[in-house]
Inverse folding.
């Protein structure tokens, strides 16, 4: 058995970012940039007013009250070419460019208007409420970088920099194949010895959460020909993910059957809990990840291995899942020779310190416990017994997009 870290690194080393493609900026959310994005304009292009009020020369208002002559009105999207001279002011609205000669805005709340004359009742400081040209960014500034996954604010910035299109890496296509005579899909008739499978649905959701495009191939029975035929549906996918059939029982056929169609196994079995019987290899250009069939094992392994694989193919600069630290909420016994990932609640104390409390029962079939968890407590191989109050490493569940 190999360690989690080695297994994940071997997966990542075998993959490369997918080719770039162009998408409309409105479709950029969640995509990973392939090239830098530089501003195509200066924002704002000229000095503009940040408030509704009057554009003035600060030197004309040494004290208050001061009366000025209103010589023009400037709305956003318009401009005044005439210079504002001594003793003059221009009515101005938010976003409108400052007229030549003016250097300060007096907000309308600090004035009294009487026809073409305005009385300034509060003395402004020079430059008040003026947005200087280039305050936000200047043409040529590189503000978004390759390997960056675009959030809502990034898309807004790209649009503001006048980019109608973005060059991003293609989304990975992930084919998903569940296996087993004992499973049926939700809503299908259930035999007396069958169970409802959540794995395909869960994996499809996880793939979307990680930024990929799922392709559901269905459920393959424990029969060599059927499994071989259904697996061929993954042709053209970037990753084939199987669920179940990865262990050593007589009905665990994934490794041997896929070997008949070209599977070259990189490794099998990882020193971890849950998820020991995990297979990784390639069938031609398609990466293959064989996950265990227990639903918690499937999702924990998807977080540790499938998510980083999709991130690497997507071009993400740092594909590793983010780890953090917390205080243990209860005692834990010493660990054995497998790295443990314990489902746990996560409570934030008044001082902001997180406390992670693993559930008593950690059976890998218990989806309800996984759903209630906020993180996984990581217990290294041969970790000594730990006490409540000790520091521990945790793996929080991703909250980006729809969340994990």
């Amino acid at each position: 058995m190999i360690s989690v870290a080695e297994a994940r690194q071997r997966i990542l080393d075998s993959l490369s970012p997918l080719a770039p493609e162009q998408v409309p900026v409105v479709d950029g959310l969640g995509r990973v940039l392939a090239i830098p994005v530089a501003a195509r304009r200066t924002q704002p292009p000229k000095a503009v007013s940040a408030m509704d009020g009057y554009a003035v020369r600060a030197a004309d208002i040494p004290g208050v009250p001061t009366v000025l002559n209103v010589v023009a009105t400037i709305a956003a999207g318009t401009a005044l070419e005439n210079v504002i001279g001594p003793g003059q002011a221009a009515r101005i609205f938010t976003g409108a460019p400052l007229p030549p000669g003016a250097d300060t805005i007096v907000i309308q709340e600090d004035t009294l208007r009487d026809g073409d004359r305005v009385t300034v009742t509060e003395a402004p400081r020079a430059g008040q409420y003026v947005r200087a040209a280039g305050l936000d960014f200047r043409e040529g500034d590189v503000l978004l970088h390759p390997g960056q996954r675009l959030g809502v604010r990034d898309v807004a910035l790209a649009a503001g920099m006048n980019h109608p299109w973005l060059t991003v890496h293609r989304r990975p296509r992930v084919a998903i194949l569940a296996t087993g005579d004992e499973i049926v899909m939700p809503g299908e008739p259930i035999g007396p010895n069958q169970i409802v499978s959540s794995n395909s649905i869960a994996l499809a959701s996880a793939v979307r959460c990680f930024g990929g495009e799922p392709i559901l191939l269905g459920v393959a029975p424990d029969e060599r020909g059927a499994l071989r035929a259904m697996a061929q549906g993954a042709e053209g996918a970037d990753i084939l993910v199987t669920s179940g059939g990865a262990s050593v029982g007589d009905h665990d056929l994934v490794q041997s059957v896929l070997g008949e169609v070209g599977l070259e196994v990189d490794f099998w079995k990882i020193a971890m809990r849950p998820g020991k019987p995990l297979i990784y290899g390639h069938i031609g250009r398609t990466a293959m990840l064989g996950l265990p069939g227990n639903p918690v094992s499937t999702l924990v392994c998807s977080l540790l291995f499938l998510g980083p694989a999709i991130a690497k193919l997507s071009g993400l600069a740092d594909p590793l899942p983010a780890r953090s630290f917390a205080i243990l909420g209860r005692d834990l016994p010493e660990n054995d020779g497998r790295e443990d990932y314990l489902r746990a609640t996560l409570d934030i104390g008044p001082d902001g310190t997180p406390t992670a409390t693993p559930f008593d029962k950690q059976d890998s079939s218990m989806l309800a416990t996984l759903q209630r968890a906020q993180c996984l407590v990581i217990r290294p191989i041969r970790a000594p017994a730990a006490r409540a109050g000790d520091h521990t490493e945790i793996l929080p569940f991703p909250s980006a997009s729809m969340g994990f």
Observations:
- The chain has four domains: 4-17+170-314, 21-40+147-169, 48-131, 324-396.
- The first helix runs from residue 4 to 13.
- The mean pLDDT is 93.
